[in-house]
Write a structure and sequence with these properties.
Elements (H helix, E strand, L loop, with lengths): L1 H37 L8 H43 L3 H37 L9 H6 L2 H12 L6 H10 L4 E4 L1 E8 L2 E5 H5 L7 H15 L2 E2 L2 E2 L1 H31 L4 H21 L10 H10 L14 H4 L3 H15 L3 H10 L1 H16 L1
Parallel strand pairs: 1-3
Antiparallel strand pairs: 2-3, 4-5
């Protein structure tokens, strides 16, 4: 029985910690509410501060909900242990002989699951409270972000869906050494570990505010991880490239084969047939990505860029790179694809991510395995 007593005491101790945290969050929430009530006395130009207070209040409320759920889970585990203890002390030896070990194993597994969940939650909530840019060591970079841009990037960071937390962990791995060479660049890019971005344009980005920053950060990760040597992808990044070219190539070929058959049926051949195939395939891909009324014009821009890269700009539905960009460096195809997937995850672009998983499922899995391995490396 000593083992059960120890386990029950451990769970009760965790429950007490959660209760204390819940009380502290309530205190923080009350303090923020009091600040907001007294804020008008500080002057008229308080809108920016109010927005930040509202974001902080939202974060605290979310943490409080998570703590409440965790307390409920701990109560379930505690209840299960107490039932097991009651069964052991009662006159039910035959029942315990049959089910005891299975029940104990189930309870032990659940206890570990809840404890792991608690640690993950505590780790992520600490990151949420810490501004995403405050960890940058370079003073010029850290202080170069406007308040509005910093708030937007923080909001996106905080709201990354749980499914994509590995991407955020990989972001955290490299954030301390980030350098932004320009905040008002004419063209956004990353080179030799330094990012060039136009923060005003990115705040008004039709693809979604902050998309360009997280896209260039994706390139920054590729650079830091050493996944490209010269003009060639290496290791798992090469597997990612090969899979990408194969699956996106299959997506394109399905349309080309369809229109090849149609063209031949119409009696076309030679250059006329090739023109028919290319024009109709381009129209079909554009329709598929953008929608019949262009309702998804900027939703699937990342996919447009990826398909443009694999097809060497033969098929570009919306967003893409200039002619000659892909020829100059073959590793740009996987590099741009990685940055597009990474930025979609960091900005919570779930609609485009769903299409990515549909068009290149194997490649997407390689990407997920790759970033998971990188976060542990």
């Amino acid at each position: 029985m000593a083992a059960f007593d120890i386990k029950i005491n451990e769970i009760r101790a965790e429950f007490s910690i959660m209760s204390a945290l819940e009380a502290e969050l309530k205190k923080q929430s009350d303090t923020l509410a009091e600040i907001k009530r007294s804020l008008p006395s500080f002057g008229k130009n308080t809108s920016a501060l109010l927005r930040r207070l509202e974001l902080e209040a939202k974060s605290i409320d979310e943490e409080a909900r998570n703590v409440y759920k965790m307390k409920e889970s701990l109560e379930d585990v505690l209840r299960a242990y107490m039932i097991k203890e009651a069964l052991i002390t009662g006159d039910v030896s035959s029942l315990i002989a049959v089910f005891g070990d299975k029940v104990y194993d189930w309870i032990t597994d659940k206890s570990k699951e809840f404890k792991d969940l608690l640690e993950r939650w505590k780790k992520n909530s600490e990151k949420t409270r810490d501004n995403v840019l405050n960890r940058i060591r370079d003073d010029e970079t850290r202080n170069g972000f406007s308040d509005e841009y910093k708030d937007k990037l923080q909001q996106l960071y905080d709201d990354v869906p749980k499914e994509y937390l590995d991407a955020r962990d990989l972001y955290d791995k490299h954030i301390e050494n980030l350098k932004v060479a320009e905040f008002d660049a004419e063209k956004s890019y990353q080179i030799n570990g330094e990012i060039h971005v136009n923060q005003e344009e990115d705040l008004d980005n039709p693809r979604g505010a902050g998309t360009t920053y997280y896209h260039e950060y994706g390139h920054y990760i590729v650079n830091n991880e050493g996944w490209v040597k010269g003009h060639s992808a290496t290791g798992q990044f090469k597997e990612f490239e090969d899979s990408l070219r194969r699956e996106v190539g299959n997506y394109i070929s399905a349309y080309e084969n369809q229109y090849r058959e149609e063209g031949i049926a119409r009696g076309y051949s030679g250059a006329r047939l090739e023109s028919y195939i290319e024009n109709n395939t381009r129209s079909a891909i554009t329709l598929d990505l953008n929608g019949p009324n262009n309702e998804n014009l900027h939703v699937n821009d990342g996919l447009s860029d990826i398909i443009g890269g694999v097809s060497n700009n033969k098929y570009v539905a919306s967003y893409g790179h200039a002619n000659g960009y892909w020829d100059a460096n073959p590793s740009r195809v996987p590099n741009e694809a990685f940055a597009e997937i990474f930025s979609a995850q960091m900005t919570g672009d779930t609609i485009e991510l769903a299409r990515m998983k549909e068009i290149f499922p194997d490649t997407y899995k390689i990407y997920c395995d790759m970033i998971s391995s990188a976060t542990k490396g």
